[in-house]
């Protein structure tokens, strides 16, 4: 994720290195102001700012576990021809690489022979601590994750711990890593989180919009030819009573025709931040000749990828709570523990969905086929459409085959949204680039349900029901968990 909450203290990394933070989350422990991390033996690069400004760390290399032999790097999809015919590995910076989509993507790109750096403030882990939440799956610290990846594959992922809303940190990171492409997952990504209270609404907008603006300026100043692959959301479009096109729509009005950005109807402060991002990126492509791809992603489900299955320390997070959990993941966990599936309102809310394996596939396709200079591409990133009722029915049938007694109940909808509506969104551009979708099947649902059953002892049933109301958003910060 991107943004730490304040800049009023220092965290001691390797005795002398400072990281701006108010409350910095490292691994599985919370460090508050004036606390120091224990001295570390991690080798790291230290970048010092000019003038009298303080030092700050922008990169930490996790040490590797002992290995008998490192895997040999072979040219793959991450390689491209440099001048003179030599093969050069593409350098990809994954902002938000400790998160759900970011972690799976970073491992996949590294496995495909891209040179990968993760940039993350680890604030997503702090959110769980603040709200009393936890992933269904146990998650290792980012350092242990990267060490384990090195141990399993022989491949190194560089790690920059810091806040992209701090432009000095981001500038140092760009100058150090020199990315050919930036994959930007580093945003507060939950609509319910953005609707808890004023402070979290402000945090979401500031973190997402300012963070993305900083990325745009960093590309302009340090890596003008760098391709930005930005995670957007299908939620930008809302639920219009016409087909949803991929980013643009051609209209005729009073006898004149033009192709314009598709109208946006965001439904939360989170979704509004994504709309602002899209507008800022489109403007900079036009004004500065930047190249950018906006991936308007649907709802993601699943947890396993080829890379995360290599070792338990590489396991991805799986959120099932009412703040960060997504519909299908939540339903599978509810079924596994015998809790009724919670359908909000009438259950006719229809959205695009995709497997986490298709998320990483789409990102790789976008990187391998970059936008042109001055081009702002928009891809609708999903593979199938389901209503909430359809998902509940699919999970019920799959659960019954596994001997689970699955019930469904309607609960008051905490959101302000249409519960019965037309929905038909186009999604052809990624297919044309070569996307081979993993469609939701009985076997995949069985796998996801069995995964939820495996970890059901970690489920806190108090976190299942929705606890954030769009209409009752508060002004004062509050803790969501009971």
TrEMBL record:
Q: Which Gene3D superfamilies match?
A: NAD(P)-binding Rossmann-like Domain, UDP-galactose 4-epimerase, domain 1
- Entries under InterPro entries matching the protein: Epimerase_deHydtase (IPR001509), NAD(P)-bd_dom_sf (IPR036291)
CDD domains given in the database record? SQD1_like_SDR_e
**One short Pfam family name for this protein?**
Epimerase
Tell me the ranges covered by the NAD-dependent epimerase/dehydratase domain, including all copies: 92-380
Stretches for region Disordered: 69-89
Q: State where composition is biased (Low complexity).
A: 76-86
Under the heading SUPFAM superfamilies, the entry gives: NAD(P)-binding Rossmann-fold domains
Query: What's the family?
Result: Belongs to the NAD(P)-dependent epimerase/dehydratase family.
Q: What is this protein called?
A: NAD-dependent epimerase/dehydratase domain-containing protein
**What organism does the UniProt record list as the source?**
Rhododendron griersonianum
């Amino acid at each position: 994720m991107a943004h730490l909450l304040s800049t009023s203290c220092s965290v001691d990394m390797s005795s002398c290195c400072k990281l701006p933070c108010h409350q910095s989350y490292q691994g599985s422990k919370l460090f508050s102001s004036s606390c120091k991390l224990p001295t570390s033996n991690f080798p790291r690069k230290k970048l010092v700012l000019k003038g009298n400004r303080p030092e700050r760390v922008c990169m930490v290399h996790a040490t590797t576990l002992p290995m008998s032999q490192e895997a040999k790097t072979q040219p793959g999809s991450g390689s491209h021809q440099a001048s003179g015919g030599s093969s050069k590995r593409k350098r990809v910076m994954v902002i938000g690489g400790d998160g759900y989509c970011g972690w799976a993507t970073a491992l996949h790109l590294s496995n495909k022979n891209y040179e990968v750096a993760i940039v993350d403030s680890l604030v997503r882990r702090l959110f769980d601590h603040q709200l009393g939440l936890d992933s269904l799956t146990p998650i290792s610290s980012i350092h242990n994750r990267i060490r384990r990846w090195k141990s399993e594959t022989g491949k190194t992922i560089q790690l920059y711990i810091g806040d992209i809303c701090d432009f000095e940190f981001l500038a140092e990171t760009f100058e150090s890593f020199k990315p050919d492409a930036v994959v930007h997952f580093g945003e507060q990504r939950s609509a319910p989180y953005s609707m808890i209270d004023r402070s979290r609404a402000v945090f979401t907008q500031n973190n997402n919009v300012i963070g993305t603006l900083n990325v745009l300026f960093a590309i302009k100043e340090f890596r003008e030819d760098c391709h930005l692959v930005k995670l957007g959301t299908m939620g930008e479009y809302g639920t219009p009573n016409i087909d949803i096109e991929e980013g643009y729509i051609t209209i005729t009005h009073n006898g004149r025709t033009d192709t314009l950005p598709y109208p946006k109807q965001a439904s939360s402060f989170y979704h509004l931040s994504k709309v602002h991002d899209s507008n800022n990126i489109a403007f900079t492509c036009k004004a500065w000749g930047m190249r950018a791809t906006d991936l308007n992603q649907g709802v993601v489900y699943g947890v396993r990828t080829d890379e995360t299955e290599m070792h338990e320390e590489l396991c991805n997070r799986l959120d099932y709570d009412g703040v960060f959990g997504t519909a299908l993941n939540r339903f599978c966990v509810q079924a596994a523990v015998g809790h009724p599936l919670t359908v909000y309102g009438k259950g006719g809310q229809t959205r695009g969905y995709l497997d986490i394996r298709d998320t990483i596939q789409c990102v790789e396709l976008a990187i391998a086929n970059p936008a042109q200079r001055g081009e702002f591409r928009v891809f609708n990133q999903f593979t199938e459409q389901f209503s909430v009722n359809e998902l509940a029915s699919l999970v019920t049938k799959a659960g019954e085959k596994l001997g689970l007694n699955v019930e469904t109940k309607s609960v008051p909808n905490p959101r302000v949204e249409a519960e019965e509506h037309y929905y038909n969104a186009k999604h052809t551009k990624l297919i044309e680039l070569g996307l081979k979708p993993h469609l939701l099947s009985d076997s995949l649902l069985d796998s996801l349900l069995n995964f939820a059953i495996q970890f059901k002892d970690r489920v806190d049933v108090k976190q299942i029901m929705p606890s954030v109301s769009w209409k009752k958003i508060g002004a004062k910060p509050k803790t969501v968990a009971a």
